[in-house]
Amino acid sequence: MTQFIPAPRESGYTQTTAVPLYWARYGAAGAPQLLVLHGGPGAHHDYLLPQMLELARDHELVFYDQRGGGKSKSDQAAPITWRTHVDDLALTARELISGPLTLAGYSWGGLLSMLYATSRISPFVSRMVLIAPASVTREHRKVFETEFARRQESDWVKSERAALVASGLRERDPDAYRQRGFELSVAGYFAHMENAHDLTPFRVTSRVQQSVWESLGDFDVRPGLRTLSIPSVVLQGRQDPIPLASGEEIAGALRARLVVLEDCGHVPYVERPAELFSAIRSFLSAVPTTD
Question: What's this model's pTM, rounded to 2 decimal places?
Answer without folding.
Answer: 0.95
